[in-house]
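Try it yourself: sequence plus coenzyme A, in.
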Amino acid sequence: MTAVAENSIYGTRQVSYPLELIQKSINMKIEFEKAKLSHHEEIQTVMQTSAREISRKAYHKELADTFDKFYIDKTSDYIKQTLENPNNHTIVAKDDDRIIGFIQLKVNKKNGTISHLYILPGYEGNSVGTQLFSLIKERAVQLNITKLMIESTLNALTYYEKLGFVNNGLISDGSAYNLELELWRV
Ligand SMILES: CC(C)(COP(=O)(O)OP(=O)(O)OC[C@H]1O[C@@H](n2cnc3c(N)ncnc32)[C@H](O)[C@@H]1OP(=O)(O)O)[C@@H](O)C(=O)NCCC(=O)NCCS
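Structure, out:
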């Protein structure tokens, strides 16, 4: 592990990342910042494009309908409302001023739910998701959250397990996994 100075939404700070991960992010010049209300349309495009082109591949037959229904009401107005809600914390990743990924944390007392994490197709597999998660986890710790939860799409289960989440099984309609991470353990 190597320490690097990084500009986060909470100012410049020291963060430790594996060398490989630092190299990728230097090459891509990805910047991270707190989401603004004016970002809602770009964020919605990232969400819908990422869901359709990456996640949907893991859904077949009758589950594809359930998947599509979930995204019908995820309009730019929906995103705007989530950005206006003070219980939500949203961070965007930008490449040359274009939003290429975002993460959203919903806070409910000591529990936090990762309500959304999406990377634009073409940018996946370059550590952007992991860096967004790292920043939101840091925010969750600052907010005294002790447990993070997520309803993971079928494609992302292994990814979240790598981040330390424990799989509590499928939700009733089989379209997502219930995962959780006890923050006091990490
Ligand atoms: C899942 C997602 C957020 C991961 O973000 P990312 O920036 O692509 O992931 P990273 O580059 O940080 O990946 C870190 C590691 O996880 C692996 N990984 C990424 N996506 C994975 C997946 N779906 N399954 C298994 N491993 C995965 C990477 O290969 C990498 O492994 P390595 O460290 O051994 O090289 C992103 O691919 C995405 O937006 N997917 C579509 C939307 C989605 O499913 N979101 C989750 C909704 S709950």
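One thing you can check immediately is this: Residues 25 and 127 are 7 Å apart (CA to CA).
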